[in-house]
Amino acid sequence: MIDHLGLQAADVAAAIAFYTRVFAPVGLREAMRYETPDGPVVGFAGPDGHPQLWVSPLAEGTERPVHLALRAPSRAAVDEVFALARDAGAEVLHEPRVWPEYHPGYYGAFFRDPDGNNVEAVHHTPPSPPVQD
Fold first, then answer.
1. Where is the VOC domain (predicted)?
2. Interval 97-115: pLDDT, tens
């Protein structure tokens, strides 16, 4: 059900060092990193290699809202979750779309829950098998 969790850090370098060192015994490692104008965003993975814990710069004032992504069984389910959130009056952050910067089959929609947390419904379309001649 939980696909990934994102935390904001006042000092991203310190957070990266902390998580890398403290959770090394459970197989946590840096799997992805990309730069933003506010600093690096780092995705940590366990033994399966799928980034599930993300640390990013504190970018939304002095509060640290959580980012929670729940995995959906299909793109249609993402669309349905988004429609229900919008109908419930949730603040829309991003309408459903493909996010190729994450990976080619990443389809997600983002909105705020009643407490201001960044909530996402996401579906990972598996890559197509290679064409054989």
1. 1-124
2. 999 988 899 999 998 887 6
